[in-house]
User: Which sequence fits this backbone?
């Protein structure tokens, strides 16, 4: 069975303030195979959670965040991939005196390893582990309700298990621990950006030309404050449950179109948002890879 090689690219379309879903998917590129993608998203909300209480604020109106990401993933061997992503993000509000913030957000670079792959009759069970390093590239301000990121350097460790049938049906479950460092706020002191545990489940179907899935994600901070007077925004504990769907189609042999829709079900200190994603992925010419 030949699964759409660039289907996993959508997993990084949601990488934004919370590094949602990360760069570590349940698919490997394959030795000598490289994919690049230019993807975009737009997300907006006029309701948000103060703690776990949903509210609105006429001084903020609707907050809209949009951006584009440049992604590349390469299969060094059949069991080792490297991935990198750089997003440019714009955030603005429809009310109040908040300035629009835009710029390059965070460099994300990672390694994926598949230590186990078992053929089970007409299916396969894969276990993938990976690590991602992220650090801000732009000098954006994190201590505002309208911003593009945490301005924190950190690491993510993730493990993914995926069961795939020869017909193209698959089920994936993954969990990650995201560790973030301190950031300096404009008030002249450092604050902790809370670590988080990120769990994702996904069910989908893929062929040589089509791919579709539905997914559920839950992020639980390991510490942090609630939004309140005088509380630095980077220190807030951001929790959420989101649901979404993905669709991809290969229009020619090396080019695929990708789209998606997701929304917030519940949250803590985040916006109750709806997000649209879109992009184009390109499979580069196959090279020899590395023999290890």
Assistant:
């Amino acid at each position: 069975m030949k699964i759409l090689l660039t289907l996993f690219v959508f997993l990084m379309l949601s990488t934004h303030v919370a590094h949602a879903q990360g760069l570590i998917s349940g698919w490997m590129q394959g030795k000598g195979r490289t994919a690049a993608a230019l993807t975009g998203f737009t997300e907006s909300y006029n309701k948000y959670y103060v703690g776990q209480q949903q509210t609105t604020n006429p001084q903020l109106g609707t907050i809209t965040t949009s951006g584009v990401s440049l992604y590349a993933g390469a299969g060094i061997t059949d069991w080792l991939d490297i991935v990198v992503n750089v997003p440019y993000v714009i955030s603005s509000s429809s009310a109040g005196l908040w300035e629009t913030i835009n710029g390059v957000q965070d460099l994300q670079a990672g390694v994926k390893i598949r230590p186990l792959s078992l053929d089970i009759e007409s299916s396969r069970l894969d276990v993938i582990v990976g690590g991602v390093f992220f650090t801000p590239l732009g000098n954006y301000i994190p201590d505002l309700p309208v911003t593009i990121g945490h301005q924190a350097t950190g690491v993510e460790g993730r493990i993914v298990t995926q069961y795939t049938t020869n017909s193209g049906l698959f089920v994936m479950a993954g969990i990650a621990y995201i560790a973030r460092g301190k950031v300096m706020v404009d008030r002249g002191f450092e604050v902790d950006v809370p670590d988080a545990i990120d769990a994702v489940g996904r069910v989908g179907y893929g062929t040589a030309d089509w791919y579709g899935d539905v997914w559920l994600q839950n992020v639980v901070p390991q510490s942090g404050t609630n939004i309140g007077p005088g509380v630095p925004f980077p220190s807030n504990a951001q929790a959420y449950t989101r649901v979404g769907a993905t669709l991809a189609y290969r229009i020619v042999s090396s080019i695929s179109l990708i789209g998606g829709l997701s929304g917030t079900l519940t949250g803590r200190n985040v916006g109750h948002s709806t997000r649209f994603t879109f992009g184009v992925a390109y499979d580069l010419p196959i090279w020899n890879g590395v023999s290890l």
